[in-house]
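Task 17 of the worksheet. Students: predict the tertiary structure of the chain below and write it out as structure tokens. Keep your answer in the requested format; marks are given for formatting as well as content.
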Amino acid sequence: MNIVVLMGRLTRDPEVRYSTGENQLAIARYTLAVDRRFRRDGEQTADFISCVAFGRAAEFAEKYLRQGVRITVSGRIQTGSYTNRDGNKVYTTEVVVDNQEFAESKAASDAARAQAGPRSDMPRQNAPRYQDAPHTAPAAQDAPDDGFMNIPEGIDEELPFI
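Model answer:
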């Protein structure tokens, strides 16, 4: 069984391209810095994992994911190879994303982004706290910004897991 689950921070904004042809498909590529469990000589080490998302997952990445944001990704490992311009064979390994979710509150994400440094070329965008944002109602104005959204009364019929 080929299943992988990762949690890490994006090392840069996702790179998104669209396929050509009649039915255009979004393809997003990004790299996750995933902390290792154990430290070497007191230093924290990380693995840098290449990820690729297709279709709606790629559009989600383009719209909401930014450098420094901590996410959880599940998918499968895919290996491949190609011959580069010098005639050398290059082997690749990447995670094909099936699902991606935010792994921290918006406040923690903003703090991590501030620590990584400002990006003047990217406008700041407010991201939803979950993937299916269009099916939810907006949070109350007086609610505290604790990273969670208040679910209004009477929405039970729209939730698929009740």
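Marker's comment: Strands lie at 4-10, 15-18, 26-35, 46-54, 70-83, 89-102. The chain is about 10% helix and 35% strand.
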